[in-house]
Specification:
Blueprint lengths: L6 H21 L2 E6 L5 E8 L2 E7 L2 E6 L9 E7 L3 E2 L3 H8 L11 E13 L2 E10 L2 E14 L2 E11 L19 E14 L3
């Protein structure tokens, strides 16, 4: 009995083998969808009287759903507890949480919800969506990068937020000569991977 396959049979066997490989790869494809707040950071930097000042938010959460094989289908929603702001000293924290700034009693959470994620190549992306702060919701956009570290996906990026657009710093603080309008937001979001069928 000949062990050689005819050309048509060879093509069928090759197609079947390729299909099996694709199905196996899909069954074990990696999605990063378990946000790890304890490994993540959200920081900010601005100038007051032209002096650089840095701070951070200590409590935030949300969801990330990112498949490196299908980046355009990714989704993200991040919610930041504004009362967790850390300016480096207690008096500053109290001031920023107050009515003229974040007004955390009335607006406790800032939220970003993505609407599109555009791949730019080399693990770079443009993330667009809506930012909601102090009852105002505006379009927002940020560049971001992705890299895999073992079972974790790391998303990093930065963008400029204009505080005046959201009414952050009203009254005597509305003067941009005292506190600059531009606030640099930096994020490092870490998500754990979960394997699942596509």
């Amino acid at each position: 009995m000949s062990i050689f396959l005819k050309p048509r049979a060879t093509r069928i066997a090759a197609a079947a083998g390729l299909a099996a490989l694709l199905l196996a790869a899909g069954a074990h494809a990696t999605e990063f969808n378990q946000l790890q707040p304890d490994k993540s950071t959200v920081t900010f930097a601005y100038k007051q009287m032209n002096v650089p000042i840095n701070g951070r938010f200590n409590r935030f959460g949300g969801r990330i759903d990112f498949d490196p094989a299908k980046p355009a289908l990714a989704q993200a929603e991040i919610a930041i507890e504004l009362a967790s702001v850390d300016t480096g000293f207690p008096e500053g924290n109290d001031e920023v949480a107050g009515k003229l700034w974040f007004n955390t009693r009335q607006f406790p959470v800032a939220r970003f919800v993505s609407s599109s994620i555009k791949p730019l190549g080399n693990n770079r992306f443009e993330v667009a969506g809506k930012m909601s702060i102090k009852g105002r919701t505006l379009d927002a956009k940020t560049p971001a990068t992705f890299r895999q570290e073992g079972n974790l996906g790391v998303f990093e990026g930065s963008f400029v937020l204009k505080r005046g657009d959201y009414g952050i710093g009203e009254g005597m603080w509305a003067d941009y000569g005292t506190v600059a309008n531009e606030v640099q937001i930096k994020f490092r979001l870490v998500a754990a991977a979960a394997a699942g069928k596509k």
